[in-house]
């Protein structure tokens, strides 16, 4: 029996992969997180874990390793098939509980939330976040389509001293040599937007309709966007209902 064993390769203790630590997976969304170094085999691919009989030729060793690789590939394929089947069940359950995740997968298939939803059950917070994220994505797409239509129609930001009326879309605190200056983006009723300092005398909130006079300069990169300066005669026309 000992003589027969001596004629066969002897498996030594495998060395864990230094990239994944022997788990076979890393924190990545590529190929389901499979380790780039060992490809899921969990052992270091650069270290041989077989001791061959003294009389074996290079051809025998190569044939033996090829057979081992074939068996390892078959085992990995079986594991992948099992994993994909499990992920399909999890994904179907997530889509049923949160239809928004299916729309989000079409819009951004590589997002972290979509990748996690394909492997793990979604929590209540994740479902709510997915619905909100899909709404924001659809809103952004709709705004971009509207902007493209306005550009095609020749709509541009007027320049010079103008009276602007529009809805406050957001704020930003900008540092300058005079200190912190609060800026706002106002989307005018004509379809363009202007970035301007919040005028003195008013304290608008997001969603309020404001009116002011300012000197506008058109952006070099977007004809529907401009920069305002020295805003005066400002007033809040209407306030957002939820304010």
Question: What's the helix-strand series?
Answer: HEEHHHHEEEEE
- Would you identify the CATH architecture of the domain at 160-238? Beta Barrel
Kindly report how far apart the N and C termini lie: 87 Å
Number of helices: 5
CATH class membership of the domain at 160-238: Mainly Beta
Q: What structural category characterises the helix and strand content? A: alpha+beta
CATH evolutionary superfamily of the domain at 160-238: Nucleic acid-binding proteins
Q: What gross morphology would you assign?
A: elongated
Q: Uncertain regions: pLDDT < 50 for 5+ in a row? A: none
Rounded mean pLDDT score = 86
How would you describe what is shown here?
This protein has 243 residues and is α+β, with helices and mostly antiparallel strands. It has a domain at 160-238: Beta Barrel (OB fold (Dihydrolipoamide Acetyltransferase, E2P)), CATH 2.40.50. It has helices spanning 2-6, 58-97, 100-107, 112-117, 124-152; strands at residues 10-11, 50-51, 160-176, 179-188, 193-197, 209-218, 225-238. The strands form two sheets. A five-stranded mixed barrel has the order 3-4-5-7-6. A two-stranded antiparallel ribbon has the order 1-2. The model has no long low-confidence stretch (mean pLDDT 86).
